[in-house]
Write a structure and sequence with these properties.
The protein is an alpha+beta fold and about 300 residues long. The chain has 3 domains: about 1-30, no CATH class; about 40-185, Jelly Rolls (Sandwich), CATH 2.60.120; about 200-303, Arc Repressor Mutant, subunit A (Orthogonal Bundle), CATH 1.10.10.60. The chain is built from 13 helices and 11 strands. The strands form 3 sheets. A 5-stranded antiparallel sheet has the order 3-10-5-8-11, covered by helices on one side. Strands 4-9-6-7 form a 4-stranded antiparallel sheet, with no helix packed on it. Strands 1-2 form a two-stranded antiparallel ribbon. A hairpin with a 2-residue loop joins β6 and β7 (about 80-85). α4 (about 145-155) packs antiparallel against α5 (about 165-185), α8 crosses α9 and α10 (about 245-260) runs antiparallel to α11. The longest helix has 23 residues, at about 165-185. The protein is globular.
Length: about 300
């Protein structure tokens, strides 16, 4: 196979890779663009300062939470189980609501900066469903997040005009960078993010995300990845945790739910989501959700 040598950094470290890999790096598709285009995220900062003693979060509501522990130590309890014993500056992320307790020293406590994180689409949001119930990382393990973290900590310690808006936007940037770190490090072993981390599968996933209206088949998705149908199907299932057809269906129905809430007509949604007709969409929707699009939307509007 043709190989070329590339300069990796200013310390003149070299690596030999295939020409195909080089092309993939140069023309790499943004693996997160379609996710955030279709399913936005909003953050709202609600705390900056010490939490002393025992602080309980009941896990109600619909928003997740992102906590930055700037200094001092804290224990994090899930029910009666010690989930994390944090002794260095760390990031703690709950994509979905989860009851927990923070236990820190009663005198001074641990310094937190916290934000609620709301994912568009709620339970149908593919990012939420791709993440575990909680994640915790020392900040030292997130080198590409350091600039945003420095800005966030600096802003949270002052009372400048526009502080709330700036902190909210910085938390949103931090979340995108966190997902990027998770993909680059391969920290998530199963599911969508694991697939986006895998250079053998990511082209198929990005194709589905970017163009849900196309008439995708297992064969055409396998061709995107340069594999046979059987090899692709087996690899997809082992890494994503479901078949390509099921994944495509989940992605489309998630978009359908979002567009229904936005008031789009069923005929337009069917076209944009890749269904041949309104009836085909309704059948697929009911098979997955358990009710027709109209009944589902009525139920959602009553919440």
């Amino acid at each position: 196979m043709l190989t070329v040598t590339i300069l990796l950094d200013n310390r003149r470290r070299f690596d030999t890779v295939s020409a195909l890999d080089i092309a993939d790096r140069i023309f790499m598709t943004d693996r997160l663009a379609a996710l955030f285009e279709h399913f936005s995220v909003k953050a709202h900062t609600f705390n900056s300062g010490p939490l002393c003693g025992v602080n309980t979060i009941d896990g109600g509501g619909t928003a997740g939470q992102l906590h930055l522990i700037k200094e001092r130590s804290v224990e994090v309890w899930h029910s009666n189980k010690l989930a994390y014993n944090i002794t260095s500056p760390s990031l703690l992320f709950y994509p979905k609501p989860l009851a927990r307790r923070f236990v820190s020293h009663s005198n001074g406590g641990a310094h937190f900066v916290c934000a609620n994180v709301s994912f568009e689409g709620g339970e149908a949001n593919p990012i939420i469903n791709a993440l575990p119930e909680s994640l915790c990382f020392p900040l030292a393990d997130l080198p590409h997040c350091q600039q945003v973290l420095n800005l966030l900590f600096a802003e949270s310690s002052e009372c400048y005009c526009g502080r709330q808006v700036l902190l909210d936007r910085l938390f949103e940037v931090l979340l995108v960078q966190l997902l990027r770190e998770l993909m680059e490090k391969g920290s998530i072993r199963v599911g969508m993010l694991a697939g986006l981390s895998d250079n053998r599968l990511r082209k198929a996933l990005v194709s589905i995300h970017d163009n849900p209206e196309k008439d995708w088949t297992v064969e055409s998705l396998a061709a995107k990845c340069g594999m046979s149908r059987s090899v692709f199907s087996n690899l997809f299932r082992s890494i994503i945790g479901e078949t390509p057809v099921r994944y495509l269906q989940n992605w489309r129905i998630g978009l359908v739910q979002k567009w229904l809430k936005q008031g789009q007509t069923l005929s337009l949604i069917a076209e944009e989501a890749g269904y041949q007709s309104e009836s085909a969409l309704s059948r697929a929707f009911k098979a997955q959700v358990g009710s027709s699009p109209k009944k589902w939307l009525q139920h959602e509007q009553l919440k």
